[in-house]
From TrEMBL:
Example GO biological process: proteolysis
Domain (Peptidase S8/S53) ranges: 99-336
InterPro entries, A to Z: Peptidase_S8/S53_dom, Peptidase_S8/S53_dom_sf, Peptidase_S8_subtilisin-like, Peptidase_S8_subtilisin-rel
One Pfam family from the record: Peptidase_S8
Organism listed in the record: Streptomyces filamentosus (Streptomyces roseosporus)
Keywords: Hydrolase, Membrane, Protease, Serine protease, Signal, Transmembrane, Transmembrane helix
Name this protein carries in UniProt: Peptidase S8/S53 domain-containing protein
Superkingdom in the source lineage: Bacteria
Spans traversing the lipid bilayer: 382-403
PANTHER family: CEREVISIN-RELATED, PEPTIDASE S8
Signal sequence segment: 1-37
Amino acid sequence: MRPPARRATGRPRAGRLLYGVSLAAALVVPVAVPAQAAPVTLTPAADGAKGQELPGMPTALDARAEAVACTPASKEQAKKQDWSRQRLDLDRLHRHTTGSGVTVALISTGVDPGAEGLDGRVTAQGQAADDCVGQGTFLAGLIAGTGGPTPRLAGVAPGAKILALRGTDRRGQPDPALVTAAVRAATTAEADVIAVAVALPRKDTALTRAVAEARKAGAVVVASATPEPPSRGSADEIPSRTYWPAGEPGVLAVADMLPAGARPDAALPTEGIDLAAPGAGVVSGGPRGKGHYLGGGVAVATAYAAGAVAAVRATHPEATADAVARRLTATAYPADIPQLDVYAAVTTVLGDAGAPVGGAERAAEPVAVRDTSDTDRATGRAVLFVLLGSAGVLSLLWAGFAVTRARARGWRPAGAGTPDQG
């Protein structure tokens, strides 16, 4: 339906001409302006507020209890992939690598060699095959689990092997002597990655030497930046400090993060964190049964980082331990604490200094920029020509329209007089 004709408003001809020119410009100029790309979503959305209802995996058992009651088997099965695997883009990562050929030494509460999704790829030394707490087996699933009948719950490097070592007593309490012996055993076994999923409050000379020997042997050492927060009291009452072996030179110190990227409110304060990885609402299996648990904390983040190191070592076998660590930090998602991006760590092409090619930090070499001044001037002349041409056409059309309307109303040129009466 055509709109009704508008009555004359007495607008000056110059104003109408300017309106016509502006309309022509609005139709022409946007063609010469490049469109802006839509922003890319860098992080997938987390699960809904309700999440998955699964039993929790403890980080340790009650040290005050007279009898040791191991974590019971879970009777629940996870119904969907959790946010952490979506965040790390593991489905796409596994099309590039599964970590095959890499051995990860996991120093934790032990690992059950027959656990779902781990059978045939776990070697447990000493008492490490007895995982009463269950956390070590839970972490092993995040590093190298296949997910069993649920492939979308696979770990970061489902083709890697696990060397299980005890760094705690049977209740999950860290022991410096056990951690030191475990690091040395991992070095002797020529593990490619050593994941220390515990944190000690005091520096230990023997542990310092053991870590230095492991790094000299070519292993990438990944360690929890802090212990888990206390179950009683407030973490705010604990001053910031360095924990070990995360504080040793060359060790990749890892902290946990929530789906939004922030550290938990109760997290213990520390400095020198190299990476943050998912550490809340994470799904994995345990040492008893085929059910799933929900776990979280710094040890969970450390396991994810260790799996990422295994994926990088499998994809870049020629890279030194220091180069692997640099690759993980250089490709991390930028934030107050760089956030682990394992897919980028595996696939990004790095420069000699370890920075992503094409990144802002790689502007040391002069860049030849094509001279587009001639093209810009030609484009400007073309736009001006179109504008002037459009204005001229509009002026002629307006003049013709005005003369036609004036004649229809009996308009005569000035000085022509009036017709004789009578």
